[in-house]
Design a protein that fits this description.
The chain folds into two domains: 203 residues, Alpha-Beta Barrel (TIM Barrel); 60 residues, DNA polymerase, domain 1, CATH 1.10.150.650. 38% of the residues lie in helices and 13% in strands. The strands form two sheets. It has a six-stranded mixed β-sheet. The two termini are 12 Å apart. Bound molecules: adenosine monophosphate and manganese (II) ion (3 copies).
């Protein structure tokens, strides 16, 4: 198998096991049909879909890497760490993710209280109707409810008006520590990757602190080509990967056919000359 930078790898997407709308099986079929040659399902804080994704990929002859996207609190902000190619039966990773998911129920009830005070009653029950995994109620499920109930036109509007810092449905939350998230993935035999670095709004100094601390804990990769980056950021974070000697990753961050701008496998390839994260995970790829 050719594992160079031009490979159509899609190593970031979500299923009904977190806040996507497709099953792991439907995502596998969609990835395959879109020409993806190496796939990973990366549900938020959850690996319950990994065996299903692996089995579906195997049945389709689609090479597969295990994946997850861990919510981390770093310097008072939320950062996402993608883990790839780990042993999905590793106990420490499973326990760490379970603990990370733990506060979501209480947070969701607080979010609903904030929304009720802003004139939107019943949002907790409403959001629950959209949840595939009761352990993983997320802001996305609230957003789908608010759109379908007619409070907003689309999901970006919900986040702008209700679900981001300073808005009535936003509840600050303490997620995993960077050191722990990187450690769980690495000790399970995988590689930790900084997800969509362009999305955090960090100053260069803050970003430098994130990358150096991440690397000090054993983190090795960074997303360069993601559905969350502009073409200018593809170039910027390719430079960042080279500068820090980080492995480059690529993934659509696909959530839903109705909501996602970028489909599975549809992004441009990584720039030649980058070392792709998959080149270092050859021994962790599940083949048909
Ligand atoms: P949570 O983990 O519950 O805080 O929810 C985070 C999820 O909300 C992300 O993974 C995205 O899927 C979604 N999200 C965050 N910000 C936005 C936004 N501005 N527009 C649309 N979706 C967003
Ligand atoms: Mn999401
Ligand atoms: Mn993310
Ligand atoms: Mn994601």
């Amino acid at each position: 198998m050719n594992l160079d930078a031009t490979l159509n790898a899609d190593l970031h997407c979500h299923s009904v096991v977190s806040d996507g709308t497709l099953t792991p099986e439907a995502l596998a079929a969609r990835a395959r049909a879109a020409g993806v040659r190496l796939w990973a399902l990366t549900d938020h804080d959850e690996i319950a879909g990994q065996q299903r994704a692996l089995d579906a990929a195997r049945a389709l002859g689609l090479p597969y890497l295990t994946g997850t996207e861990i919510s981390v609190t770093f310097a008072g902000r939320v950062v996402h760490i993608v883990g790839l190619g780990f042993d999905h039966e590793a106990a420490e990773l499973a326990e760490g993710l379970r603990a990370t998911r733990g506060g979501r129920g209480a947070r969701a009830r607080e979010m609903a209280a904030g929304l009720a005070a802003a004139g939107i009653p019943g949002a907790y029950e409403g959001a629950l109707n959209y949840v595939g995994n009761p352990d993983l109620i997320s802001r996305t499920h609230f957003a789908r409810f608010l759109v379908d109930a007619g409070h907003c036109h689309d999901i970006p509007e919900v986040f702008r008006r209700f679900l981001t810092e300073g808005r009535p449905g936003f509840v600050p939350h303490r997620w995993a520590a960077l050191r722990d998230a990187v450690g769980w993935v690495t000790r399970a035999g995988g590689i930790a990757v900084i997800a969509h670095p362009g999305r955090y709004g960090f100053t260069p100094t803050e970003e430098y602190a994130l990358i150096t601390e991440f690397m000090a804990h054993g983190g090795r990769g960074i997303e360069v080509v993601t559905g969350s980056h502009t073409p200018a950021e593809f170039v910027q974070y390719a430079d960042t990967a080279r500068e820090f000697g980080l492995l480059a990753s690529r993934g659509s961050d696909f959530h839903s056919p109705d909501e996602s701008r970028i489909d599975l496998g549809a992004l441009p390839p990584l720039a030649a000359g980058l070392t792709p994260v998959w080149a270092e995970l050859a021994h962790r790829i599940h083949h048909a």
